[in-house]
Structures are given as structure tokens and as C-alpha cells.
DNA sequence: CCACATTTCTAAAACGTTTTCGATAATTTT
DNA sequence: AAAATTATCGAAAACGTTTTAGAAATGTGG
């Protein structure tokens, strides 16, 4: 490594012929420094390529201009799901525009699993959580959002009344997806759900049930499978389910990845999609439009979700007003080919 | 925000009845502290829920246990390309296993565009660059890798002899892709290249030329287009190129995204792929296998690349030995349908 | 029991900032 | 011109660690 000369605030104070405190004030826009000397100091600083040391500054101000992101769990690091990459991109854009960088928590050598501890240790100003499954204890989760600005994206497990979160309009969107299937003439519809703990997952089942009820169809728990948001798991469950006859003609999946697994399985069993079985997914990830058949699915506005979460977090950091914020992002059904056309008789 | 009591090293020194320095040494595994007192201190620290302040520590040690990642450029934040999300995932896994977190540089409010400056400001221990196009000046790039452990992934623009990088076996893989087209009977093959500055992009053209030469085919610069790795741009160029006859029966693209744009354009022009025109891509992103027609493409081992880069960087950080490291990751041609079958006479 | 080596501990400096408070200089008021 | 006010600056403390240099305690050999 070639050596690099790093100048500190003392060096530029010396060069400018003023005190360290005056330099600091000039740099941070304090009012008690003459505009002429401020300009002079700024010039010297620029000439000498001065960079404030973020550690020293953070030590005093307790701010790092960094927001943290927790992704998924240990085994499945979250980036597996293409859903996440657009989320993080929008977070990056919003936070970046406001002068923040992004820290992704990765270190697995910590001697703690406390979110609060980890956040404090790294000195992030706030944190966004994008969790899947049931990877946190209640104590852990409460501790975090009680001590630090926190926003959950589509992943609150139990609803505290003081948790900030962004979610998709899950119930409504699922309702419409299932209603569409019903209008196409389906009466026995399988629900491939995610899990039973996440609010998002629960709500997608809820919308399914509401649509059935509204149209006088029976809700049958045998028609609800739990694919854990895994393509592989959905494949297995589908293969087992459809290997015996049951009169089911349509499937509503809680994610596109699972929908792919479902369709793969149906094809392997000799069914045609959508002629024999109609399938609707959830997410509208990039692959879905190019899939064969192109997937009918619920479009989640990932960019808007990330954007909203980031803005929400920056607000929380700025104001510290203790107000709890929620946002529900609209979703719409994108009708492609996998849901098929109206059934004859 | 509920208040959280944060204890510092002084508090636990008082509670343990020893000096601050002894606590520090006990915590950091120094040898000059009796094992009995060390144990006692560790217990007190755990009981009091002590967390070291990373700012204060970093101020002295100049380490942050964080590696930085620069992604793409300002406009196109990098996550657009699905190629990147797998890269970052593997980096996260490797770095995380070794006790590092990941900082993604996002802040656009900085008053500098110097990589070195930005890295120093955040105190990262090393940095991985995944750049596209020509978004850095030579001065900027040199300054960075001279002052900080740095690994480039498939994105060195000019070859310094002291730059660490990981790249795909671009020349070789491209050679085989084009040779495959030649063996299928194609003689006029269009090259949709990326740009002319990145080494990766250059090498993919080089492999194309080598294959032509080996089989006695003429290299014609009119058959090399520059799609800048953009699906849209590739679409435009393809549409213009194929609107006049030229006897071209195959296209070799430097990315899958561009290949999609190419195929879209060909379809719009009324060509059939692969019957009329064969197309081969590069990257093997997830969409490619589900695309219609499934894309023949060069599979880049993204996971291996990210993994290798991360390991390389951690080595550089650890050893500081000044040794320059390179890694070339094998790639293989994945033959699907878009390249078609052997041409009849 | 003394001289010396070794083990174990501590005081204090250092890291590079920000911020408080008081000092000085400049300006205004009386 | 003196007094009061205001604008501008600087000294020093503080942030929470690590590390150096040395002091105290303990052990060892004669």
C-alpha cells in the first residue's frame, strides 16, 4: 500500500493560521465566524484535501449518517429473493439523496443476536428490517424499536401499536386475485401460502378467504398449503397434492417464486397451465413476465415500498417525535396468461 | 424513543474494581492480565450488557471491520442488473463469516467524487468495486488502490500492474460461444458488445475475433455494435441493423439483458429466433432459462466471483503484503434453444 | 533476605473531532 | 469618549476507546 498523507483539522488550522475550533465552526456552518475567514478556511481545506474523520466526529455527535439494513435470516441471506434487490435499490437511492450510506449487517461472528446491540455497536442512525419467517423473538424486536428509529418492510410478525412499517395492500390485492379466478369460473381454488406468523403472509390468506366467502364458496383448510416462500417446497407440496384427484382447477400463490415451483410441478405431472390448472402469483418479480406461460400475478410496487420505508426512516431520524407511522402501498393484479380464460360450463 | 442505558468501559471498570486499561486488555485478549481477573471482568461486562463503542475504537485502531462496495454509477445504481444481486450476496456471506459487515456507498451529497476520500471518510478496511462503463478517471482509480486494499470485479478499465481483480474467463468463454455458432453453420455473426473501455467488454470482443480468425472468417468491424449493456440500447441498434439485409444469421451478445433486447427487436421485425437468427447471450442471469426461447448463454459463476473477491479482499486486509492478486473464474457455455440447431446447407 | 526477573496491573497520553465558555475585538449606543 | 452590546475567535474539555511506559506485586535463585 502506498502511503497517503491524511491531513486533520489541526493541520489545516495551522496552515490557515487560526484555531482548531474556528476551523471546525467554519466547516460546519456556525454563525460565529466571519464570512471572510470562513472562505479562507474552506479554501485551505480544499487545497489540502481535508476529509473529516468520521469516527472522531461520530464519537461526539453520536451520528454516523448511515442507516442499517437487516436482511432475511442467516441461512437464506435474503438476496436469494429477487424481490429484495429492488427494495434495496430504492432504499439506496432515497437514503443516498439525503446524504446517507447503507450498512448491511452481515457479520456472523458477533457474540450477540440482539438487533439493538448490533445497531448500537455500528452506530447506525436508524434501521430497516426486511425479515422473513420467524427469525426474531418478541423481546429482541421490541428492544430494537424502542431504542432506535426502525422501519419494518412487510415483515411485522405481531402487531405492536408502536411499530413503524410499510406493507403492501395484502388483503385487498389477494381478494381481487381470487375474485378474478372465481369470475373465470373456478370454484375449488388452492391457496399456496407462505407461513403462519408474518403479517403479510397471514393477510394474503385473509384476502383469499374473504373472496371465497363473498361469493358463497366454502373455506376449506385442506386447500391451504404452506410453502414457506420456497420454490422447492412449493414444488414438493404441489406434486403431492395434485397426485390425487381433488377437483381443484386453480392455485393462488403467495409469491411468484412459489408459483414457478407450482407450475414446474404441474407440468411434471402432465397438467397444462392454464388450460388444466390456472395459477396466480404474488410479487411480480422480473422473471414473471418472461416465464412460460407469462405469470398472472399481483404487482407489488417494490420501488415505492423501499422509497417509502427509506423516507419514513429519515423522518423518524430527523424528528424523533415518537409518532408511529404506517404506510400501505397499493397493489394491482397483472393479468397475463397463467390464469387462463373463462371456463366453459 | 425509549431511553437505553449504555454502559461504557469506565462503568465496568468501576463495577469490577479494576482500571480502565485492564478492562480493555481483558476484553481484547491481552496476555498481561491474570486469567482469574479476566474471567471476572468478562462476567461483569456481560452482566452489564456492555458493548464497545465502535467509533471510539475505530478512532484509535483505524479499523472498522467493515468493507465497502461501490456499485455502478450514479444514474444506474447497479441493482438494476440482476447480475449484481448474487454477487453482493456471496460477498455478504464470505465477509460476514469472517466478522465483517458491508457498507454500500450511496451518499450523493458528498463534495467529492474521490473513491479514496469517500472510503477514508467512512473508515472501511477495504473496498470492492463493481463498476460499469467509464465512470472513473485514471487518477481516481489509482489513488484508491494505492491507499487501500481494493478488489475490482470484472471492471478494470486499464490494466495497472498492481491492481487486484476477479474476472470471468472472458476471452475463452467468448471464443467457445462463437465457435459453437460457427459449428452450427453460421458465417456472418453480429457482435453486440458492451463498451470499448472495460477490460471485460474488450475481452469478449477479443474472443469473438479469435474464433472467427481460427475458422478463417473475416473480422468485419461493421459487425460489431456497442449496446452499452443496456437492453433498450441493444433493442434500438438491432432494429436499425436488421432493417436492411446483410446476410447475418447469428448474434453474440455481451450480456443477457442485451440479448433480450436483441430478441425483442428481432421478433418485432418478424424474424424467428432461433429459426431465422440464432442468439447467444452472456451472464446466464436467472431470467434466461425461463425466457422464450430459453437463452443459450455463457454462464458466469457469480457466486464464485463474489466469494473469490471477498476472500481476496480479506487476505489483502490481513496481510498488507503488497502482493497483487488476480483470479480468473471459469465460465461455460450453456446451450439452450436460442442458438438453434445445425443449419442445413 | 537480598537482588533480580517476571507477572500483573494502572496512569496517562493519544486518536480527531465538536462544543462550551470565556476572551478579545469591533461596533453601536449613550 | 465611555459604556454597553455584538461579532469573532480560541482554550480546553469531552467523547470512549487503545496503547505505551512504567509501577507494584509476585516469584526465583543465591
What does this protein structure show overall?
Chain A has 345 residues and is α/β, with parallel strands linked by helices. The first copy, chain A, folds into 3 domains: 9-52, lambda repressor-like DNA-binding domains (434 Repressor (Amino-terminal Domain), Orthogonal Bundle); 66-168 and 303-329, Response regulator (Rossmann fold, 3-Layer(aba) Sandwich); 170-300, Rossmann fold (3-Layer(aba) Sandwich), CATH 3.40.50. Chain A has helices at 9-16, 20-27, 35-47, 54-61, 82-97, 115-122, 138-147, 170-183, 199-214, 231-242, 256-268, 287-290, 302-319, and strands at 66-71, 101-104, 126-130, 150-153, 164-168, 189-193, 224-226, 250-253, 278-283, 296-300, 326-329, 331-334. In chain A, the strands form 2 sheets. Chain A has a 6-stranded parallel sheet with strand order 2-1-3-4-5-11, with helices on one face. In chain A, helix 1 packs across helix 2, helix 8 (170-183) runs parallel beside helix 9 and helix 10 crosses helix 11 (256-268). The longest helix of chain A has 18 residues, at 302-319. The model of chain A is unreliable at 74-79 (pLDDT under 50). The first copy, chain A, binds a DNA duplex (30 and 30 nucleotides) through helix 2 and helix 4. Chains A, B: It comes from Paenibacillus rhizophilus. Chains A, B: Residues 7-61 form the HTH lacI-type domain. Chains A, B: This is LacI family transcriptional regulator. Chains A, B: Pfam families: LacI (PF00356), Peripla_BP_3 (PF13377).
